[in-house]
Design brief:
1557 residues, alpha/beta, seven-stranded mixed sheet, 63 helices
Length: 1557
């Protein structure tokens, strides 16, 4: 900050009296930049306290910034409306008394601290924090033994001292948005936001919080991808214990923390002031466990309110709260804008495998062979059936399985059965204990062996009843005295039934021993202290309660029991488990009882569809407990109808339907589909659409839906909502025939925002599939953009009308943005200043008055769309070249560095900007500078707030960008240039504080030594590499960033810059992002000032505007000339609906940025000049009016077909030669391990080679190329490829083809898996296959790319001998075939991540491979994609999305792998004419019963008789009977030797003269 900008404030602070002399506050702060951060937080807290005392809103007056001066003394600046108050730290000390807890933190020894805080003994807060962390670490060091007594574990040679850090598998999370990438635990912690963690029983909610406590208290515990702050303190609270305690004494949460620190951790001097100060300073992570377990609704509401208030009081600290899904109800809901709502996801296969390895590494540490045997045994048991595998996705059940396996050696297959085995195993420790010489007091009483189980069942049911009836009870927690009284009475009643005399005193003593025994030896009861008990886990309590009395039930009593508790969430699990026990464990009579009872309940509830019991019945369907199809049909119908009333892909009802789909078998999914179909056919308009969305969401495809929708009388009302189903071929046909511009405008306006903007831009540039041939989508999109333009112009005019004197200087003077640094200057136009005449003169666009029935469902269906990166990267390359052009050519910059930096920028900023930008300003706590800026617009735009605007934004986004892009820059330029980057980026006067980061913390050297030490430190490459990886380096860069301002200077038509040092290029690019952010915040703030919202709806208003006006428009305007080149390439000129859409996009981008696209984009200017002013004006109006809305989108759709021509009596013309033909081979498997297989293979290959010589006789076209789709070798070894190469070259020679006509891609057998033993390869594969790491990032990282290439090294050497394009991991090749047909071949590597038999759902292509299709033009060229794995059976993790993508870009996908030949249309995707062609295996094995064991195919493209093109697939398969290859009649059209597939969207060149080859 410049001293000229500071008005020094001297004297005493208003309203604060002078105090005793205290030591300087600076001595109490952390050193260096950490002290600046600490002081900034402290200052903000003190200003808040001062404002509260003085009665004003601090957010409306001040923004607090702390910064070190050159003498390392801190000062604080408060940016006010008219001036800046500059306070030194002594002034702040005067404020400390307003917050006693903070005063005690910095001056604990002061007598005044004790006076302000009764009970405070003057302890040092930092020392206490260290001690508290040590106590927490000890408390959470070991996992619960699940009740297994230590001596019993020793008898079984099982380890009981299991460290949590050794066993914990990082939790997976699911968001409401299924298309959003699932965040990892490390990512969530890095965000620093509060979170509500929902999970079913046993999903590890408490264990997660225990691990987080350990992670933040024990420095030896780590989590990959996250570095815990050494100053962060974990505060763990069991909310059920807090609920009980606070009911007695009305404790606040912060006081409860102090109480528990004294009682649980023996910290007798613990005081609430420590917890308050830590929370105020943002140095805690708060972990609140079990929001749903706090008893009655009154108690739950009270505790939830306390949590909300606690979060509001201490917004700097993340608060994590856990709850069961079914217990999280509206009365305890936490605000979504403050708490990120997440569900704990099921354990994936690799998580289970990881757990098993960890488990037996702990249990059997010294015997490798035995440990591996046990690991394999448990792994086989878990994965042997889908039922057991499904159970293992629950962490509690997996842990129980591990214990059961350790003790019993086998595993049950159902949830209830597993609970039973667990309980039986725990109870068995009692029987085992009888053999020991030392006896528990209860054992010496020699009571019957069946007594513990029966008594615990009755006790569980008693506790279940008692918890619900007691308004102040906590679920699962009960009084020892109450349990003793109940068991005593039960014990005496048993004795009376047995006609034994048992006194109260004896029964009481025996049951007291029984409770101790159940806690100490059996482990099913847990002593919680304070006279309280609980069962080992609430789930086991519910299971035992379900079992109680299940041997002796009758229909009437059971019906009464069910009707009493059905619909009560606290009883749901009990009812489900009880039905399981009766139906599966108690014989046919009880099974019939359950069946009949559920039927009666269904009939009774039919009259009350809102009854919550329907959800329990739905979960009973999920668990396979509803045996009658009629009952299932009714239940599904009711639940679906209820969901359709308020449809959302979240909430209890949806989760029930999701569970049914996820865990049910194929028959159950068919019943769910039938229920959806029924609602689509008979429901209301809204219900039919909701059911359509649900079926697509849960079940994927929509068979028969189009027929049902077409038959509805309200079809016209459905059409706008059907727009998002355009990728479904049959529904897309309805849109083609019936939709209008109004329908598309309505849909696009309701969908709005980033996804629509990116999608319509893709239509325009030809980089995504456009909905051709009809015009309604383009005119609808243009109309939507014109509406956005109208809204923006109206906002500017309204603001100008309200505050003419405040914006006059902007409108009359050449103002623009300017950001100046010692390394560069950057300027940009200020968009607010000007409304182009061409836009203001346009007629008002027709208002869009209708909306979608279910816009949220539609947005989910549409999903995210990627911003087209190609033109932005190309523009950024030119930008970088221009920036570097002014410097001497001798600069040692690598040739590809400019492109790599451009790519890194786009991927770091542009790809994530639309996601990160809105969240930077709508999260909580809200950045105060945004509020201030909104208010300053109502006062004076020349306020000093503008100068701090860009800097404040950097705190939210740009600093992270510096760090990310800076590291990428270092990788691109090398460490040597990185040294120059660090040296030149840091001004000389500031280098002293940086030396510490470079490895020299000595603070005693004089100024001359600093410069020498600086140069010495930079001379070591290791230091340079380390400094760029450190957050502190980028923080120091951040606090010295210049402040952005509005300056009166010549208004530039676009971005202009002056780069003074080429090594500052990354910082220049970062500042381009700063300009974009500020331009959008300027417009947002102006909009909010014109349309103010109350506090409750402010977040929603911000999010809505930012979504409707995506910041992508900045980057599009920046790169508009590259977009214009694509428009010219794909469309030639500005004309018709596409011309209207192009002008709308250009006008919107120019309006939002102020960029003059005509002056700065020569390609765009030439397009406008060619069209002429009159046509341009007409196209602008065409995009703004609904004139085209009156007619259906495709008038030709209803035109009658012409009459067929008379049959010709002349001889048919000879068949024209195909335009292109290929031989498709796959799965050759050279190098088979068995000698018999190898000999048999050589015979098959010889016969196939001979068969190719007879193609002419078989009337099969001769191939122009050979396409091989993987599994060429057996195990990826060089000698196997030598054989393959020899055979393929022989085949090519017989066909008259050169070796460069052979195109290959690898399969899973082409991976050399011996490389996977390398530790780095294992790490890389684990992250990529699990989806935790990004494949595209790995492909950009030279080290990771090298690891991936090593796995296919022998294959790559083999492939290099054939078509030149095939020399890389994946490739693209183009050529021109007969009659001018353009052919594009894409070689996709689906086997990059192949690693074993568990490849399903773990293989990925990533965005980089998809980008090979960016330039594909299906209308003008034949596009064939080669891959090994088919788009079926979930081999690829992104299968559905990839099928849709390929369907929109390619004509055919050629694959192998499954050994079964077929050709069919891809039905899951966007292209109605995309084909999936599977060749079958050239050699699939010797077994005669394997269908299509040996096969290949020949495919050709022809002119269709009616116009267009067709593909003809000639499949050939091996006949074991005749021992030769023959036509595969099962895969051809009847009466033909081929299967024919039309390619409707390929426009062939005009047919040439017919000739016979």
């Amino acid at each position: 900050m410049d001293r000229d900008d500071i008005a020094l404030f001297a004297g005493t602070l208003p309203g604060v009296a002078a105090s005793e002399e205290l030591s300087p506050l600076v001595e109490r702060l952390l050193p260096g930049n950490e002290g600046a951060r600490e002081l900034e937080v402290l200052s903000d807290e003190l200003v808040q306290a001062w404002a509260q005392r003085e009665g004003f809103d601090p957010q409306a007056h001040y923004i607090v910034k702390a910064h070190p001066t050159h003498s390392d003394v801190y000062s604080v600046s408060l940016y006010e409306v008219e001036a800046i108050r500059h306070w030194s730290t002594p002034e702040l000390v005067k404020l400390l008394r307003l917050v006693p807890a903070l005063f005690a933190r910095y001056y604990p020894e002061s007598p005044e601290a004790r006076a302000l805080l009764p009970g405070f003994d003057g302890f040092d807060f930092h020392a206490f924090a260290r001690l508290y962390r040590e106590k927490i670490a000890r408390g959470f060091e070991h996992v619960s033994l699940l009740g297994f007594p230590p001596d019993a574990l020793r008898q079984k040679d099982a380890r009981g001292d299991i460290r949590l850090a050794d066993l914990f598998v990082p939790t997976r999370f699911i968001t409401d948005d299924r298309d959003q990438k699932k965040p990892t635990l490390a990512q969530l912690l890095d965000r620093g936001r509060s979170a509500l963690i929902l999970g079913d029983p046993g999903m590890g909610k408490t264990t997660l919080l225990a691990f987080l406590s350990l992670l933040h208290s024990d420095p030896s515990v780590t989590l990959e991808g996250y570095r815990a702050s050494p100053r962060r303190v974990p505060f763990f609270v069991s909310l059920r214990e807090y609920a009980l305690e606070s009911h007695k004494t009305e404790l606040a949460l912060i006081d409860f923390l102090a109480v528990r620190a004294r009682s649980d951790h023996s910290l007798s001097n613990a005081h609430a002031a420590f917890f308050e100060a830590t929370l105020r300073m943002g140095e805690a992570i708060v972990l609140l466990d079990g929001l749903d377990e706090v008893g009655s609704s009154t108690t739950r509401s009270r505790v939830a309110k306390a949590v909300r208030e606690f979060r509001a009081a201490y917004p700097r600290c993340p608060v994590w709260v856990t709850s069961r899904i079914h217990g999280y109800t509206a009365d305890i809901a936490l605000p979504r804008n403050e708490f990120e709502h997440l569900r704990i996801g099921p354990l994936a296969d690799e998580d289970i495998d990881h757990f098993i390895k960890r488990w037996y590494r702990i249990q059997i540490p010294d015997n490798d062979r035995r440990r591996e045997e046990q690991q394999n045994s448990l792994r086989r048991a878990v994965f042997r059936t889908s039922q057991v595998r499904a159970l293992a996705t629950n962490p509690l059940l997996l842990t129980l399985m591990a214990f059961v396996h350790r003790f019993l050696g086998h595993l049950p297959q159902e949830r209830g059965e597993l609970y039973e085995k667990c309980v039986d195993m725990l109870l068995r420790t009692w029987l085992d204990a009888k053999e020991r010489p030392e006896k528990h007091a209860f054992e010496r009483r020699a009571l019957p062996t069946e007594l513990p189980r029966a008594y615990l069942e009755k006790l569980a049911l008693h506790v279940q009843f008692r918890a619900i009836s007691d308004a102040h009870s906590v679920r699962g927690l009960f009084s020892r005295d109450d349990a003793l009284d109940f068991l005593t009475q039960l014990h005496r009643e048993r004795a009376e039934d047995e006609e034994r005399d048992l006194s109260y005193d004896v029964a009481h003593a025996e049951m007291r021993d029984f409770i101790d025994f159940a806690c100490d030896r059996v482990g099913l009861l847990v002593d919680r202290g304070g006279g309280k008990l609980s069962f080992l886990h609430l789930t086991l309590q519910e299971y035992l309660a379900a079992y109680a009395g299940s041997f002796d039930v009758d229909h009437e009593d059971e019906g009464r029991f069910v009707r009493e508790h059905l619909g009560d969430g606290a009883w749901e699990e009990v009812l489900l488990l009880r039905w399981y026990v009766l139906a599966r464990k108690r014989g046919e009579r009880r099974r019939k009882l359950v069946r009949d009872l559920l039927g009666e309940i269904v009939d009774e509830l039919t009259k009350t569809p809102e009854h919550p019991g329907w959800l329990t019945l739905g979960r009973a369907i999920r668990d396979g407990l509803v045996s009658r199809e009629r009952d299932r049909r009714v239940i599904l119908s009711v639940i679906l109808s209820r969901w359709a009333q308020k449809p959302a892909f979240s909430g209890d009802i949806f989760l029930v339907l999701d569970d049914i789909c996820e865990f049910g078998d194929s028959d159950l999914r068919s019943e769910l589909r039938a229920a959806c179909a029924d609602l689509q056919e008979k429901g209301s308009t809204a219900e039919a659409l909701a059911a359509l969305h649900l079926e697509g969401k849960l079940l994927g495809d929509l068979p028969g839906a189009a027929d049902r929708i077409r038959a509805r009388p309200d079809l016209a009302e459905l059409l706008p909502d059907l727009v998002v189903f355009r990728d479904e071929p049959a529904l897309g046909t309805i849109l083609d025939e019936r939709s209008t511009v109004d329908h598309w405008a309505t849909a696009l306006a309701a969908l709005g925002g980033t996804a629509v903007y990116r999608t319509t831009l893709g239509w325009l540039t030809g980089l995504s599939e456009a909905p051709v041939p009809f015009e309604a989508p383009f005119l609808g999109a243009a109309r939507w953009l014109r509406e956005r333009i109208r809204s923006e112009i109206s906002s500017r005019l309204a603001y100008t009308e309200h505050y003419p004197e405040r914006v006059h200087f902007l409108l009359q003077s050449p103002y623009g943005w300017r950001l100046s640094d010692w390394t560069h200057t950057l300027t940009s136009p200020l968009a607010f200043r000007k409304i182009p005449q061409a836009l203001s003169a346009l007629p008002q666009p027709a208002p869009i008055t209708t909306t979608l029935r279910h816009p949220k469902l539609a947005r989910d269906r549409m999903g995210d769309a990627d911003l087209v990166e190609v033109p932005i990267i190309e523009r950024m390359v030119r930008f970088n070249q221009d920036a570097l052009a002014a410097f001497p050519q001798g600069e040692p910059i690598p040739e590809d560095a400019v492109h790599r930096i451009a790519t890194a920028f786009v991927r770091t900023v542009v790809r994530t900007f639309a996601w990160s930008f809105p969240r930077s300003f709508t999260g909580n706590p809200k950045p105060t500078f945004v509020r201030e800026f909104v208010q300053s617009l109502g006062r004076d735009l020349r306020s000093d707030i503008l100068r701090s605007f860009g800097r404040a934004f950097a705190q939210n986004f740009v600093r992270d960008f510096f760090r990310t892009l800076g590291r990428s820059f270092l990788r691109s330029f090398g460490t040597a240039l990185g040294r120059d980057f660090v040296r030149d980026l840091v001004p000389a006067q500031d280098r002293r504080r940086y030396v510490k980061l470079l490895g020299n913390p000595d603070a005693s050297a004089d100024a001359l030594d600093w410069e020498a030490r600086w140069d010495q430190a930079l001379g070591e490459e290791a230091h340079v590499a380390r400094v760029i990886e450190q957050d502190d380096f980028w923080w120091l860069i951040y606090i010295h960033r210049p402040r952005l301002g509005i300056h009166a200077e010549a208004r530039p038509p676009n971005l202009t810059f002056d780069l003074k040092n080429p090594l500052a290029l990354p910082v220049l690019l970062a500042d381009v992002g700063t300009l974009a952010a500020n331009e959008w915040l300027f417009a947002l703030s102006r909009h909010l000032h014109v349309h103010p919202s109350d506090e409750k709806s402010s977040d929603e208003a911000w999010e809505t505007w930012l979504d409707q006006n995506p910041v992508d428009a900045f980057w599009v305007a920046f790169a508009w000339d590259e977009h214009a080149k694509l428009i010219r390439r794909h469309h030639g000129r500005l004309d018709g609906p596409l011309g209207a859409l192009a002008l709308a996009h250009a006008d919107y981008a120019s309006l939002m940025t102020g960029f003059d696209l005509v002056a700065t984009c020569p390609t765009w200017k030439s397009l406008l000049d060619e069209a002429g002013p009159e046509k341009v004006a007409a196209l602008r109006v065409l995009g703004a009016t609904p004139a085209a809305a009156s007619a259906p989108a495709s008038a030709a759709a209803s035109a009658p077909a012409s009459a067929p021509a008379a049959a010709s009596v002349s001889a048919p013309a000879p068949e024209a030669a195909p335009l292109f033909t290929w031989l498709h081979l796959s799965d050759l498997h050279f190098g088979l391990p068995g000698a018999g297989d190898r000999h048999n293979q050589s015979q098959i290959l010889s016969i196939l080679r001979d068969d190719l010589s007879t193609l002419d006789r078989q009337k099969v076209p001769r191939p122009d190329a050979i396409l091989v789709t993987g599994d060429i070798a057996w195990s990826g070894k060089p000698d196997q490829y030598a054989e393959a190469s020899k055979w393929l070259l022989d085949v090519a020679q017989r066909l008259g083809l050169a070796k460069d006509r052979i195109f290959v891609v690898p399969g899973n057998h082409d991976v050399d898996r011996s490389i996977d033993a390398d530790r780095n390869v294992k790490r890389l594969l684990r992250g990529l296959r699990g989806g935790d790491d990004d494949l595209d990032d790995a492909l950009e990282n030279p080290d990771d790319l090298d690891l991936l290439r090593r796995r296919q090294a022998a294959y790559l050497e083999f492939a290099a001998a054939f078509a030149p394009a095939c020399r890389d991991l994946f490739w693209s090749s183009t050529e021109t075939t007969r009659e001018g047909l353009s052919l594009r071949l894409i070689g996709a590597n689906t086997s990059l991540l192949a690693a074993g038999d568990d490849d399903a759902r773990k293989l990925r292509l990533g965005q980089r491979q998809r980008a090979l299709l960016n330039d594909a033009a299906r209308e003008r060229e034949l596009v064939l994609v080669l891959g090994h794995h088919p788009l079926e059976d979930d081999w690829l993790a992104e299968q559905r999305d990839l099928a849709r993508f390929l369907g929109s870009r390619a004509h055919a996908y050629l694959a192998g792998h499954v050994h079964d030949a077929k050709s069919e249309r891809i039905v899951t995707g966007g292209g109605a004419d995309a084909l999936r062609i599977i060749a079958g295996a050239v050699y699939g094995g010797r077994e005669r019963d394997i269908p299509h064991g040996h096969a290949y195919s020949v495919t050709s493209i022809h002119h269709a008789p009616s116009g267009g093109a067709v593909l003809r697939v000639h499949p050939r398969r091996f006949s074991f009977k005749n021992y030769d290859f023959r036509q595969d009649i099962d895969s051809t059209d009847e009466g033909r030797s081929y299967a024919e597939h039309p390619l409707a969207r390929l426009s062939l060149p005009p047919a040439g003269p017919r000739f016979v080859r």
